[in-house]
Amino acid sequence: MPNYDYKCQECGHIFEVFQSMNDEKLTDCPQEGCQGQVKRLLGTGAALLFKGSGFYETDYRSDSYKAGEKKAKEASSPKKKKDQSSE
After folding, report:
1. What is the pLDDT, as a whole number, of residue 77?
2. How far apart (Å, rounded) are the C-alpha atoms in residues 64 and 57?
3. Which of the ends of the chain has fewer CB neighbours closer than 10 A, N or C?
4. Backbone φ and ψ of 71, nearest 5°
5. pLDDT tens-digit profile of 6-60?
6. Using H for helix, E for strand and C for coil, what is the string for the chain?
7. CA distance 48 to 25
8. What whole-number distance in Å separates Cα of residue 87 and Cα of residue 82?
9. Whole-angstrom Cα distance, residue 27 to residue 43?
10. For position 68, what pLDDT does the model report?
């Protein structure tokens, strides 16, 4: 459920409400003594934030893919050693 920001048209009070998308918009200011109408402010929208070292499709590869990758690395490393020793 998203947070919505509202602003009172009379007193200028800005507040945030956690409500469902299906809920009706608020109409009355919650400040004591104020009978002003509130207007929902346009928000930046919900952002998808990933925190951590990384979220890539390669982070969750299958075991068979990992085994093949390991074999490929092992096969390429002796070639590099031979090429370097012949120079």
Report:
1. 75
2. 15
3. C
4. -65, -40
5. 999 999 999 999 888 889 999 999 999 999 999 999 876 666 666 666 666 666 6
6. CCEEEEEECCCCCEEEEECCCCCCCCCECCCCCCCCEEEECCCCCCCCCCCCCCCCHHHHCCHHHHHHHHHHHHHHHHHHHHHHHCC
7. 24
8. 9
9. 18
10. 87
